[in-house]
Amino acid sequence: LRVLRKVGFATDRAELCARLFADTSRDGVYSHGLNRFPRFIETIRNGIVDLQARPQMVDSHGAFERWDGRRGPGNLNAHECMSRAIALAREHGIGCVALRNTNHWMRGGSYGWQAADAGVIGICWTNTMPNLPPWGASEPRLGNNPLVIAVPRPEGHIVLDMAMSQFSYGTLELYRTRGEELPVIGGFDLDGNLTRDPGAIEASRRPLPIGYWKGSGLALMLDLLAAVLSV
Fold first, then answer.
1. Based on C-alpha coordinates, what's the Rg of the chain?
2. Catalytic residue at 32?
3. DSSP assignment of 36-76
């Protein structure tokens, strides 16, 4: 919170942003929590993230709305748009908000928990830069797009938050920095051999998609849907 206030966040936005990072590490998702915080601050300092920008609605069709993130902080943009989707669902029975021109939303599961805590089912995903090869190819052409599905329950919510690769790049980084091999094969090395070495997979940029060709196909369709809905 002190760091966010120092770089220029208003107090209320700093408190929410800090909580989203802290909750992620509290829940054990270190790759997208405090471990990613210095990188987030760097994107503010180098101008990638406009910390003053707030998302704006640009199009509305009943239960469906399009919003522009205006290059603002990705986690705050996503949180505000999920709040809007929840409000639309209360009015129409279902709500869909597509957000463009934003930045990394950090842990996607945060917005699944947000929906579940509000008592609604949440489904959200995002596209990203090409960092996953299509099945049978060697060059990254697809995004390793996270998919989140949340179902509220009085006895405890169920939230799925997964990447389209066997291990996300954040998880690969965690294993590499700990000097550990992956528990199962996670991708290819530079010679095209399957490996459990996280550093070798980072170097090749060839993580193994979940379900082999099925995960590759799902990554493609999430890319297409995110683009079609948000533009």
1. 18
2. yes
3. GHHHHHHHHHTTSS-TT---EEEEEETTEEEEE-TT--HHH
Distance separating the N- and C-terminal Cα atoms of the chain:
34
**If you ran DSSP here, which 8-state letter would residue 18 be given?**
H
Beta bridge partners of 165: 209
For 131, residues 6+ apart whose C-beta sits below 8 A from its C-beta are: 140, 142, 143, 144, 169, 205, 207
Catalytic annotation, pick one of 32, 61, 92, 104: 32
Report, as ranges of residue numbers, the positions in the chain whose pLDDT lies below 70. none
| 141 phi and psi angles, rounded to 5 deg | -125, -15
Cβ neighbours around 131 below 10 Å, total: 18
Q: Rounded to an integer, what distance in angstroms lies between the CA atom of residue 79 and that of residue 61?
A: 21
The tens digit of pLDDT for each residue in 27-73 reads: 999 999 999 999 999 999 999 999 999 999 999 999 999 999 999 99
CA atoms of 116 and 104, how far apart (whole Å) = 22
CA distance linking residue 208 with residue 211, whole number of Å? 9
Q: CB under 8 Å, gap of 24 or more: what pairs does 186-191 form?
A: 188/138
